[in-house]
Amino acid sequence: MGIVLTMRLKPEKYTQLHTALCKAFNPNSFTSMLKGGLGLELTDVSSNNAPFPTMCGDVIRWAEERDRVEGLIAAAYSVNDTNRRLQQVRDEFDATWFQTDTTLEDTRRNAIRSPQPDDTRSPS
């Protein structure tokens, strides 16, 4: 069994993508873009009764969990390539948009550290 990591966007990049999606689409065009570009039914990841910004957030989280953020950006841009916010997101997007999991790095580092003097006790 392996470790599964979710690539989470940095907060400022999440906000940038969220704003771009909310401004570039309305609920109907967003639903069509998801179905056509990602084969995704919006109702599979968000409630029909949710406010549109919540729907956009739910889709971003879905994309993060499945390593599909780049695909989401590409699908959105392909449908609305005149939107300057989407164009900026598409042009700037790269691996630096994601957070590093320092908790996991610290855990690994601590797991392989050398024994310290206090850690070596003679058996009683």
Main β-sheet description: none
Strand content: under 5%
Number of helices: 6
Structural class: mainly alpha
The pLDDT mean sits at 83
Runs with pLDDT <50, length 5+?
A: 102-124
Oligomer: single chain
The ordered H/E elements are HHHHHH
What does the radius of gyration come to? Answer: 20 Å
Distance between the termini: 37 Å
Quick summary:
By secondary structure, this protein is mainly alpha-helical. It is built from six helices and no strands. The protein is globular, with a radius of gyration of 20 Å.
What does this structure look like?
- With 124 residues, the chain is mainly alpha-helical.
- The protein has a domain at 11-95.
- Helices cover 56% and strands 0% of the residues.
